[in-house]
Amino acid sequence: MKYKHLVNKLLKIPEQTFTDHDPQIQSASLVAWEGLIDALICSQLHAPESNALVKNPTDQTVFKGSDPTEADGFPKKIKLVMTPLIGIMSSNCDASVHVSCLNTWSYLLYKLDKLASSHSVLKQFGSRSWKSSSRL
Q1: How far apart are the C-alpha atoms of 52 and 50, rounded to whole Å?
Q2: Percentage of the chain modeled with pLDDT above 70
Q3: Is there a domain that residue 52 lies in?
Q4: Is a pLDDT exceeding 60 seen at residue 91?
Q5: What angle do CA 55, 82, 115 make, to 5 degrees?
Q6: Strand bridging mode 53-55 / 61-63
Q7: Cystine design at 112: which of 17, 45, 107, 116 (Cβ 3.0–4.6 Å)?
Q8: DSSP helix/strand/coil, 66
Q9: Is residue 39's pLDDT more than 80?
Q10: Which residues make beta-bridge pairs with 63?
Q11: pLDDT exceeds cutoff 70 at 132
């Protein structure tokens, strides 16, 4: 990723807002987090060099070329995006924040599309999600 150091600095801002005591700020942070999902996850899925998603003759979206979930850094990006979501779901915060978190989680799954059933993605989701849900 280009400008990785800049992204790391910018991530400090939402990190602070996720722990704010105001539920509206936390919910707004989760909506903003969807932009990071677009930037980190979706940009890699549709990267021209991977030829990741194409339409087959039956008009289904399939993968061509290398599997983007096996690409360098993809599991790390999933983990980065999921960390605050898991933290919020396992915390005792306002119900509206939990709803916003579930919306963001749903957005992530929607953006992953067919990759959500990929082994490496399921492994990331499975291990982290079950740990979080067992705390609820």
Answers
A1: 5
A2: 60
A3: yes
A4: yes
A5: 20
A6: antiparallel
A7: 116
A8: coil
A9: yes
A10: 53
A11: no
Q: What's the CA gap between 128 and 12, in Å, rounded?
A: 22
Residue 72 is given by DSSP the state T
- What is the tens place of the pLDDT at every residue in 58-83? 655 555 555 555 555 778 888 889 99
Query: In angstroms, rounded to a whole number, what is the distance separating the alpha carbons of residues 96 and 68?
Result: 34
Confidence of residue 95 (pLDDT cuts 50, 70, 90): very high
DSSP annotation of 71 reads S
Residue 43 lies in a domain: yes
Range(s) of the domain holding residue 97: 37-135
Q: CA 111, 63, 4, 131 torsion: positive or negative? A: positive
Provide the terminal-to-terminal Cα distance of the chain, rounded to the nearest Å: 35
The answer to whether residue 10 is domain-embedded is no
- Length of the chain counted residue by residue: 136
Q: Is 78 exposed, middle or buried (0-12, 13-18, 19+ CB in 10 A)?
A: buried
Q: How many domains are there within the chain?
A: 1
Q: Could you give the percent of the chain with pLDDT greater than 90? A: 29
